[in-house]
Amino acid sequence: MSQYRNVGLFLTLAACWGTAFVAISAGLEYVPPVLFAALRYDIAGIVMLTYAAYALEDGQWLPRGRQGWLVVAVGAVLLIAAYHAFLFVGQQHTTAAAAAILVSLSPVLTTGFARVFVPSDALSIVGVGGVVLGLAGVAVISQPDPSDLLAPDFVAKLLVFCAAASFALGSVLTRRIDSSLPIETMEAWSMLGGALVMHVVSLALGEPIEPTAWMHLEALGALGYLALVASALGFLLYFDLLERLGAVEINMVSYVAPIFTAIVGWLYLGEVVDATTLLGFALIAAGFALVKRRALREELDHVNRLSSRLRE
User: Fold this and answer.
1) Which of 207, 204, 215 is nearest to 30 (CA)?
2) Per-residue pLDDT, 206
3) b/e burial code for range 105-136 (CB count within 10 A of at least 16 → b)
4) Residue 3 and residue 24: Cα distance in Å, rounded?
5) First to last CA, the chain
6) What percent of the chain has pLDDT over 70?
7) Is there a contact between 257 and 100 (Cβ–Cβ < 8 Å)?
């Protein structure tokens, strides 16, 4: 029964995060990108902080000490602000499915960054090949034209790639910082800090503030979905599954989410996934399999042993 529950929650998380890309595309029709991302985390941050204050004991909802605030700062700047600013700006000129697939490169880049910051744990030749294969997938999807590298479509996909790289780097740095901060507290304060950073960036970019446009039903629906479902509910599911499944299996959500993005993007936005994008996705997924081959083999052995015990 527990296994069915985990599968159900995993698919729910993939659906929440996959359809978030469609909600982003819908909301960008009405709200400037960086401001839209900031508003999303104004709401999500308050919800998460409320949850942290309720769920944690002894004032653990409040970061303490230099290390605690340092991990929050890294999370705010890289995991929230940089990731979402790049993603929302980039997604103005690319499809939701292409953005979701490019973001699925994050686990591969995370491994690459981890090896950079831990030189003694260098990637093997096969692991390097996996990273290269993942980057090849990005190149296939973005299809750069050397004669026009400033084409809106290429620049958009490059920005989404920067979003994936920001998230990967932030993931590595937050794990490297020696902090006993509960993950709920780190996420809540990172969301609020990231929202503040994005509001400052939005003002610096001169994005128009037109609240009347935000009142459109589709804009409100997209914002509410992103803040409450994709962010608040999504991260709560992520925390729960991380403890139950571990980091390797939960990373696989990055490769299931684009399926939901493609289906809902086709139904709601009329976006069609072409063969080139599918090929790029296959290359990125293959790169992940090479980089994580040992961990995936261990997970497969564990599943096989569990299945054998159930049959006995």
Assistant:
1) 215
2) 93
3) bbbbbbbbbbbeeeeeeebeeebeebbebbbb
4) 32
5) 17
6) 83
7) yes
Q: How far apart are CA 150 and CA 98, in angstroms?
A: 18
Region 41-52: mean pLDDT is 93
What is the mean pLDDT of the segment spanning 222-226? 95
Residue 144: the pLDDT is 61
286 pLDDT tier (thresholds 50, 70, 90): confident
pTM of the predicted protein model: 0.84
| 149: its two tokens | 């590298």
Token pair in block for residue 16: 């929440």
